[in-house]
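Sat 14:20. Reprocessing the chain from the morning session after the first attempt stalled halfway. Input below, unchanged.
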Amino acid sequence: MARLGIIFGLLLFGISIAAMLQTPQKAPSQFYSMMFGIPTFFCGIVALNPHRRRQAMIIASGIALIGTVSGLVWVSLNLSRTPEPLAPESVSPVPPIVAMTVTCSLFLCSVWIGFSNLKKKAATNSPSRSVNP
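Finished this time. Tokens:
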């Protein structure tokens, strides 16, 4: 799961870079995905240590949960407004935020699936203790 954190952190970086390369104008919404990509990437690096893996991935999944919820709230609040006319060179903030929300939710689901698989694997591998009277 550590590599998963690194990969999704880099994907969030890529979303932000793609949004910045889209236009020479910069908007704060272009950097939202990078704000969630940096700690996710860092948690993935920390999770390479077997003694810190569980804690780092729990923190990374919490960051992904915050990214998913904040992205959903941002999109719902900003799409409910009446659209204002955009200048030809202005930046549309919706695609990077939607991509960030989808990426964070995919990471969150994959970490939860990974944790449930580890729990099942630990339950089947643990020896059953029998008490002899």
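The chain has one domain: 2-80+92-122.
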